[in-house]
Write a structure and sequence with these properties.
The structure is a single chain. By secondary structure, the chain is mainly α. It is 60% helix and 5% strand. The protein is built from 10 helices and 3 strands. It has helices at 12-20, 28-44, 49-56, 60-73, 79-92, 110-122, 140-146, 153-167, 177-191, 196-207, and strands at residues 96-97, 103-106, 135-138. Strands 1-2-3 form a 3-stranded antiparallel beta sheet. The chain is elongated, with a radius of gyration of 23 Å.
């Protein structure tokens, strides 16, 4: 597994100075927050929580919490930071709709979710993330409020519609003959040398 290297990290001297000045009064959590801040400052801010969780060998819930505490301790004063972060989500992420026509998309950054929530509250509305914390469920009208400040809104709306159309497709009820042949071929390659006596049994199960 790829390890995170600290040898080339920037701001290391500032980190040591910051931790040394209140030495003896900082808690374990204080150190962890400062380390997470240093980590994010060195090219890992855009890395997923799962990526950091596996490489730091800590629960993903702790990664999320430390990210949020970093955002609280080092708040982004420039509103454009959150606008740009949300713009990248609209431009690149996956979108779906539920049975009620609400738009669903993922926002892992808790501070960004709070920013979007505040923006809707100022407009007298809200979004729902009660089912899964990082999945935002919002009406189409409220989604338009969230992107109201962006240029080329028509292009963004078109991109979201295309993503929804692609992701809301139902899985085929039956495998096509061509798809079944591909599965058989892959299965044979994967199992023939490992458990040849089971290959025929499983292939018969696939065909049923």
């Amino acid at each position: 597994m790829e390890k995170i290297s600290v040898r080339e990290w920037k701001h290391m001297d500032e980190f040591v100075q910051l931790c040394f000045e209140p030495f003896g009064s900082m808690t374990k959590n204080d150190y962890e927050v400062e380390l997470m801040h240093l980590l994010l400052e060195n090219g890992n801010e855009e890395k997923s929580d799962h990526y950091l969780s596996t490489r730091l060998r800590m629960p993903i819930s702790k990664v999320k919490r430390l990210r949020y505490e970093v955002d609280l301790r080092y708040p982004k004063d420039d509103e454009n930071y959150y606008k740009d972060a949300f713009y990248r989500i609209v431009k690149d992420s996956s979108f779906k709709t539920d049975n009620s026509g609400n738009i669903l998309f993922s926002v892992n950054n808790k501070a960004l979710r709070e920013f979007l929530s505040d923006k809707l509250e100022q407009s007298g509305s809200f979004f729902d993330s009660s089912f899964v914390s990082n999945i935002i469920r919002v009406t189409p009208a409220d989604f338009l409020i969230l992107i109201a400040d962006f240029e080329k809104k028509d292009t963004l709306v078109k991109r979201v519609k295309e993503s929804i159309a692609q992701n809301n497709k139902d899985l085929p009820k039956d495998l096509t003959e061509e798809g079944l042949e591909l599965i058989e071929s892959l299965f044979k390659d994967a199992t023939s040398h490992i458990a040849p006596h089971l290959t025929k049994y499983f292939l018969n199960k696939i065909k049923k």
